[in-house]
Specification:
With 342 residues, the protein is α+β, with helices and mostly antiparallel strands. The chain has four helices and 14 strands. Helix 1 runs parallel beside helix 2.
Length: 342
């Protein structure tokens, strides 16, 4: 390597002129520069300005390359963070699904256990009723039976609510009777209402109606069964339904008419035959302001409540009616009613 005497640039030995300033001792293939003065002039006014500009561009290029690498690294870091966040969200969703599945499984198991317990209780009650020998009716003469009397029918005492003539001339009399004491605690419907969202709890479809007209009816002797009359049972809408119809259209709606041997009284029938007060329309009953439900101081009516999935009932020692009702899968007392031939 040789050093240019003008710009002090190292040049190859074979170079005929300096690549920077163009200095040459001899005439080469480039524009001939015969003197050092011309070479210095070119270096000062042509080469250096261009060199400065080249250095500036080179620095700018290097800065842009660094910025591009940093931006690329930042994008990669953000992408990694997004993937990590998505992975965490997927894990949380999987955990939530697993928790929901476990809750659903537990609910199904609980419902199955409750249904099995209810079926077992019904079976035991039916077997107990079959094993007991029915007692025959010991009634007073027809002329002595009046509303308000207590009569013996089957194995139970019954309150006479109404006495009327049988349809048709010369057919005798009949009486509407209500069991004086309550049967054991029973649900209106064994199917869970899930807070009243999925079960209309109507009389024509409930499990309590099947029990009364099958197991309970079969506990009577053949002689007593012959005196129990079939009744056309009409279950009308809750008389206080119109107040809440706008907010809950299905609440308080009556069910289909039925033909029953044994039935529950409706709001209209209980108000007709017993002196009861009732909750004003739309007033909710707080179960905390009444006595213990286990004492069977509450008994079902067949009219649906103004709350969806609920059924009306009598409480406070037969003095009041809850028109809002209680969920149909709760267990309270039962007082069957029926028409019998006197």
């Amino acid at each position: 390597m040789s050093v240019c005497p003008v710009c002090e640039t190292k040049c190859p030995e074979s170079a005929q002129y300096c690549n920077i300033c163009g200095f040459t001792d001899e005439h080469g293939i480039a524009r001939p520069i015969a003197t050092k003065e011309e070479a210095r002039h070119r270096l000062e006014f042509i080469v250096k300005p261009h060199r400065n500009e080249w250095e500036r561009l080179k620095i700018e290029k290097a800065i842009k390359e660094v910025e591009a690498r940093e931006a690329k690294a930042k994008d990669a870091e953000e992408a990694a963070a997004a993937r990590e966040s998505a992975a965490r969200a997927a894990e949380e969703a999987a955990a939530a699904r697993e928790s929901a599945a476990k809750a659903a499984e537990a609910a199904a198991t609980r419902e199955a256990a409750e249904s099995a317990a209810a079926n077992e209780a019904n079976t035991k009650a039916a077997e107990s009723a079959k094993n007991q020998k029915p007692e025959t009716t010991n009634n007073a003469p027809d002329s002595d039976v009046n509303p308000g009397d207590i009569i013996r029918f089957g194995r139970y005492d019954w309150r006479v609510l109404e006495v009327s003539n049988m349809p048709g001339r010369g057919m005798g009399k009949r009486a509407l009777i209500l069991k004086e004491t309550m049967l054991a605690e029973r649900r209106f419907n064994d199917k869970s209402t899930f807070g009243g969202l999925f079960n209309t709890a109507s009389w024509d479809e409930c499990s309590l109606r099947r029990y009364l007209n099958e197991d309970f009816y079969n506990s009577f002797s053949n002689k007593d069964q012959s005196r129990i009359l079939e009744t056309h049972v009409v279950t009308s809408d809750n008389p206080h339904r119109s107040f809440l119809r706008t907010f809950n259209p299905g609440a308080g709606k009556g069910g289909k008419d039925t033909i029953d041997k044994i039935f529950l009284l409706s709001i209209d029938e209980i108000m007709k035959h017993l002196e009861l007060s009732k909750r004003t329309q739309g007033e909710e009953m707080d179960l905390d302001d009444v006595d213990d439900l286990d004492n069977l101081d509450y008994w079902w009516l067949r009219t649906t409540g103004t709350t969806r999935g609920a059924v009306t009932f009598v409480y406070k020692h037969d003095t009041q009616i809850s028109v809002t009702g209680m969920p149909a899968d709760h267990g309270i007392g039962v007082r069957p009613a029926m028409w019998i031939r006197l």
